[in-house]
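=== RUN LOG ===
request id: a7f3
mode: sequence -> structure
chains: 1
length: 183
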Amino acid sequence: MIKNLKTTVHDLPGNGYVCPNCGKPYTPVEYYTGVAVSSTSSRVDYNTVQTVTSYTNVNRHMGGICRFCDVSNQKSMIPLMIGVSILGMIILTIGMFLARGIIPMDRMRFGGLEVILTIIGGCALIVGVIYIIIAATASATRFIKPNELYTRFIGKLRKEKQMRTGVVYLSPDTVSKMTTRRW
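=== RESULT ===
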């Protein structure tokens, strides 16, 4: 059964804070929030536009993600993705049989059906197999680079509909590249 567990918290109250779902400790994630004040864009060359955004009230936060529940959620989707892969394989096979003439069809009436079925079936098969591989090899204890952890954290906040309104989420790398100006 697919569970919709909340795997993230905006602010960790301290070290050792544990997930209420599984009892394992949250992995801390550093992030910043700010309010966008203005944004200006200028063309650098034919292919490049540079955008400069000014922020105010940039504050550091330490959020958390339960990687154990996240991996559990991923693994709970494996049976569904096996079904998607099998369905994709069946549709792909039917499309290929139609294209080779093994299954007869009226090409004047259903012209192109074999191509559509082959493409849809192939895509479903590929997506299912890739997800199964990623979910099966997922590990809650594997080292994740801070940028990847931040990206996963923000993605989970968005998916779990926990994004705060009125603020922009910024990565530590983005904040480190910002320049401070006081007038």
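=== NOTES ===
The longest helix spans residues 113-137.
DSSP finds six helices and four strands in the chain.
=== END ===
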